[in-house]
Amino acid sequence: MQTAQNSTSNQPQTHAEDEALVVIDNIDFAHGFGAHQVYRGLSMRIPKGKITAVMGPSGIGKTTLLRLIGAQLRPQQGTITFANENIHALGRSDLYELRKRMSMLFQSGALFTDMTVYDNIAFPIREHSDLPEEIIETIVKLKLEAVGLRGARHLMPAELSGGMARRAALARAIALDPELIMYDEPFAGQDPISMGVIVKLIKELNQSLGLTSIVVTHDVAEVMTIADYVYIIADKKVVGHGTPSQLEASDDPLVHQFLHGEADGPVPFHYAAASLEDELLGGNHAR
Amino acid sequence: MNYWGETMLDRVAALGRTTLDTIAGAGAAFFMLMRALIGKPNLRKSWPLLMQQMYSVGVLSLLIIVVSGLFIGMVLGLQGYTILVDFGAEQSLGPMVALSLLRELGPVVTALLFAGRAGSALTAEIGLMKATEQLSSLEMMGVDPLRRVISPRFWAGFYSMPILAIVFSAVGIYGGYLVGVRWLGVDDGAFWSVMQSNVEWGQDIVNGIIKSLVFAFVVTWIALHKGYSCTPTSVGISRATTSTVVTASLAVLGLDFVLTALMFG
């Protein structure tokens, strides 16, 4: 397997033949005026029409990556292009225009709590079009049918289970027929049935609507069944990438540790600290 | 460097950090408001949102405003009577109550109550929208949350508060009338006619409304900014809500002195 670490260029080459919808080129990003470095020299290509999984240990900045692609955050260095547009060079109104072509499924669902499921799905259509209500109703019903929630359209978000809320949010995310959909931890906190439903929906929607999907997750088993390409992020950069079968065959210790859920390895079990002996016996009583 | 030197340096660094944070916060609040308010209005979409917020911010504040206004007017009537009657000047009770309310208590107490009722609600609502990623989801849908969420709430607060202050003063004057005339026996005709001849439209009523508009601008702005910039956790929202009430109340009281000095000084 070829990894970003041993590539000669910044861009991963493994799937260079596919047309890329999103290109992340050598970005550096830090929170809090450089106090917490999240990425250093991160590069990725997200191929058009494919499902790309981004995996990595918790707290590594996977959600931050989606916010960078959506231009909610700005990298300190490097560029991110969407459909050949440098998204961070766009003006405010152009950026909002471009965002109509992408969508994001948030981990919490982020449904508007004061609206019914129907109004939640109708919201982006009403905001961005002057379509008559009858046509909006038809579109909303079709979107809800796609996620199996047509019968739940009159419910409020508080009346939905976690899995149903995630599916309703998915219906809203595809309401405007985006080119790119970003899934932020879509399987987190789901029971096995809901998880199976969401895995199936991601796969089916990607195929039937011709979407490009980015799935950020650390649920290895689920995402490996549907992903066309996988990136593993750790230590502020891409540490491994390839098709699921390439990664399964990888002998890279970090990739191996992550895919097989080993407690200790290149990603240590212990958070960085002075040795226990020093702290207990050395008179260092810092808490 | 010795211990005292390090402590001193730490204090200077902390002061510098606080100053920078304050300036950055003020800048962020300014840009938030500018982005929310400047732009081509879309009346077809923004009018229903404004009406919805006017109901939530204004109409739902009516109860506390009316009850408070009535009691404050009654207290003014009672206190005013007990003082004025010693000088045989109880005929001046009407203008005393009216001027106190129109110039000061109406705008100020309304603003303080508004900060506690509607301001805290605005902060908590926006903070919760931030914590549950609703604001982020709006951005990702290509909908500017500043125009969709902040702008209608700002205008609703700005228009509602002067109306609430007028209601407060009117109910307060009626409360003073109930106590002074109906209970304590001040002459009905004298109460109203002396009030009418002493209250001036421009000097008293318009200045009171101007005060109220300034307070409305400041209180609503503070409430919205605190919610929009809060740390999106339960503790963060709680702190932001408290901070809205404290900051807005202090701003109202401080500005009231400045405005009073400019208008009546």
TrEMBL record, chain A:
Residues 22-260 form the ABC transporter domain. InterPro entries: AAA+_ATPase (IPR003593), ABC_transporter-like_ATP-bd (IPR003439), ABC_transporter-like_CS (IPR017871), P-loop_NTPase (IPR027417). It comes from the Bacteria. Pfam families: ABC_tran. SMART domains: AAA (SM00382). GO terms for molecular function: ATP binding; ATP hydrolysis activity. Keywords: ATP-binding, Nucleotide-binding, Transport. This is Phospholipid ABC transporter ATP-binding protein MlaF. It comes from Pseudidiomarina marina.
